[in-house]
Each structure stands twice: as structure tokens, then as C-alpha cells.
Amino acid sequence: MKRIIVNEKWCLGCRLCEYNCAFANSGSIGTTPLDMAKALKDIVINPRIKIEEKDDICFAVSCRHCKEPLCVKSCITGALTRVDGVIRINKEKCVECHTCVLVCPYGAIMPSDEGVMQKCELCVQNTGGEPFCVKGCPNKAIEFKELGGDSV
Fold this sequence. Notes:
Layout (H helix, E strand, L loop, with lengths): L1 E5 L9 H9 L11 H5 L9 E5 L2 E5 L8 H5 L5 E4 L2 E4 L9 H5 L6 E2 L5 E2 L13 H4 L6 E5 L6
């Protein structure tokens, strides 16, 4: 299973991963012309990946798609599922109870602009290929690569 791996040694804290994530989830992918500046103009972004800073070290926080996810186990409505190794949220089933937010040890689940929860879904609904945060990282601090086994 491919996963997003972050190397904090290379992270500049530029937040381009956040903008690329917001663009990938803006509904503008597939439109012509593909223009991030137009899609995100005059809106407050709410990306599914977040840059954190501590003691002058920057790192991106996103879903780890755990092998045994606490978020899926604790979801009272079954809105969170693990399909082909990717944890997905069914927004129709989410009742905004925030239980998944409380149990995620990585802080990777957050409310969306609509109120229901959101998290990284590896851009499977947008591109089916490499996640946009990885494509947009100028320093290659975020990678999308195969991990041995089904770790995390």
C-alpha cells in the first residue's frame, strides 16, 4: 500500500501542500483550464493536510491510513470505512459527533466547511494517482511511496 511519507528535514513550511490539497478538493480538477489561482481566489482554504511547526521544525500532518484505525472503530454511524487500505468518509452518514477527531492519535481528522468531517483520502476521488500535496511539494519533503507490509 502506498502512503504519504513526510521528511521534516526537508519541509520548508511553505504550505504549498495545503494549497495543493485545497485545490485538489475544490471541485475544479477536470475543468479547463486547470488553474489553482482561479479556483482558490477569494476563499479561505480548508485543506486535508496541515503544516505544524514546533521548535523551528515544520512537518505535514495527514491521515496515516492505519491498519487498525481507531477512527473507523469509534465511528457511531459507520461513516468511516477502510477500503483497499484507504480510510474514507461517507459524508452522507457523518453526524458531526467529532468522535473520530477525538480518537485519531495523529490529529488528521477535522471538520470540513460543510461541518461534516474531512481527512486525507490520498486524492483517490480526484486523481487516482499521486496526491496533489506530493506533486506540489517544491522540496520533495512529501513522498508517496510503497511501504513494506501494511504498516501503521
